[in-house]
Each structure stands twice: as structure tokens, then as C-alpha cells.
Amino acid sequence: MKALVYHGPGVKAWEDVDRPTLVADTDAVVQVDTTTICGTDLHILKGDVPAMVDGRVIGHEAVGTVVETGTAVKNVHLGDRVLVSCISACGTCRFCRESRFGQCVGGGGWILGNEIDGTQAEYVRVPFADTSTYPVPAGVSDEELLMLADILPTGYEVGVLNGQVRPGDVVAVVGAGPIGLSAITGARLFSPSLVIAIDLATSRLEAAKHFGADVVINNGEQDPIAAVRELTGGLGADVAIEAVGVPATFELAADLVRPVGHIANIGVHGKPVTLHLERLWARDVTITTGLVDTFSTPTLLRLLTSKQIDAQRFVTHRFGFDDFLHAYDVFANAGDTGALKVVLSRTG
């Protein structure tokens, strides 16, 4: 089969690899019908994720068709169409029992496209199939559902819920890429008084307006700290969400938050960040980090099927599998291409 294979920082190839087989009796093999590229995959290609090794298949998001199941798989059957979650859950360890699936110590967590071969391939082995996949609901397209594999749960859980967004809050989102837009989408569910999006790319700020941002700030053209303070009577944002994963954006989020506010870090960081405790220690600020657990996926599925969230608008570009390398170029140069999420499908 063909797959997108990591060969060290900056090097990838769409090449022939062995088709996956069952390793454990709780596994399933899924034919990948639709997949996508994540900002985390770009961090992987920069060398920011130590678990990645030469020869591993990238990717952790997919919608597909079950073609093989282990003997212990009870709820997933041959021919079922499923959403493959970015997080695998053993379902029995302490963290899984607490719905903290991202911290699974029973062999799950974020393993697809990280510790084992991932989803940017024609087929993928999915561990713990019963607890790591979701049936495709009627009336929902593959593209919409694919947004629930990672970005929507990540923005909602790690940004909005960790940041404790409440009705009437001012929410500042640093970074208007797909994860930042997911955080805006999730924040709007809690009736904030103001959502502010901050980015350097005009195209992404325009997208942020469509996703519900009340104010957009190009921090290459104006001082976002001064702008947010002017909008909040000098206080700052109740919740500042970092959605990029570089030192400058985390430090900006820390400077945007008001006393007794929340800083929710979503971004994947590959370099050390300076934490200015000399400025923050007396301000009663709460800082949270997190790997998505995907405990919110069933809730988001209900919101998706009831049309209370619009996941389709994330998709800006579509490709066939043989165009994987071009799709990466388009996604990596989003400031020029306007890409939010690129979708790759078996049928092209």
C-alpha cells in the first residue's frame, strides 16, 4: 500500500509500505477513505516530536471502513464506517476510567502517527478499536466528521474547557489557524461577550470573522496588548488561548490575560518558552496545558448532527491520495494559500 512516511526532520515521502496487520486481539484494520493534515504533523516534520522515528507513517485523523477485526473486538464489525479518533484508549487504566484518554498508560494515548504508524495511508491499524472509534452517523459527510478526529475536540477541551470560558467573558485567541478557529467555535457555545482573534495572516483573520470572532487584530500591524486592554477597560482578557506553539505566542497570551484570568495553552511546543513569573506571580493567573483526551467527541457529534456547529467550513482544499506532497505544501504555506484544513480522499 501507499503511505506518507517520515524520514527525519524535513523529509517525507509518499511511498510503498507493508499493509498493516492485526497485532492485538483488540485491534481493527481500517481502510482509510478520508484523512487530513494537522498542524502537529508540521511540528513532527520540524523534529519537535521525539517519539517519531525514520520510517514511521504520519497522521492521526481518519474516516474509513473496517476491513479486519481482532477476536476481542465486540462493537466494531467488518464493513462498518467509522471515525478514527486521534487518541487511542485502552478503556481500563486509571486515566481512561477518569476519561483522560490522552494520558492512557495501558498502551493508548496519542500513539497513531507518533508511536505507531498513522492514518496518512491507504490502511491503518487501530488499537483498542471498540473504544477508539465512533460510528459514522447518518446525514454527516466524511469531511465534516473528520474535523472531530482532532481539531474540534482539541480546541474545545484544551482551549475552552481548560480555560474555563464562561458567559460574558472576553476571550482572546492567539493564532487563527484550524485549532484557533476550533477554539473560537467552542468558545461561542458559552456566550462570551467578546471573542478576539490575533494572527499575522490576513486570510486567517478573515476566516476568524466567519467563525465568530468579534474583533480581529493583525499583530504585525498593531500592538495586540494595547488593543485588548483598550477593549477591556485596561484589564485584559478573561481567557487567553494560545493556539500556535511557538515561544512568542505563549508569551503574548500571558501578556494579554487579566488578573485572576486563565491562560490555556493548546499549541505543540518544540522549544523552551520563558515564563515570566516575575510579572505573573501576584496576578492569580491560572495556566493550563493539555493533550486532547477526546472525551468530548460524543457531545460534539450530537452538536454536529443537530447542525449546531458547522464543521464543513474548515475544509478549504481537497486532494487525492497521490497528491499528498502537494497537499502538504499547500497546508504548510497557509498564509499564501488560505488553507485551513486540507482533506485527502481515496476517491480523489
Automatic annotation (TrEMBL):
Residues 178-292 form the Alcohol dehydrogenase-like C-terminal domain. SUPFAM superfamilies: GroES-like, NAD(P)-binding Rossmann-fold domains. InterPro entries: ADH-like_C, ADH-like_N, ADH_Zn_CS, GroES-like_sf, NAD(P)-bd_dom_sf. Its cofactor is Zn(2+). Keywords: Metal-binding, Oxidoreductase, Zinc. Residues 25-130 form the Alcohol dehydrogenase-like N-terminal domain. Gene3D superfamilies: Medium-chain alcohol dehydrogenases, catalytic domain, NAD(P)-binding Rossmann-like Domain. It comes from the Bacteria. Belongs to the zinc-containing alcohol dehydrogenase family. This is Zinc-dependent alcohol dehydrogenase family protein.
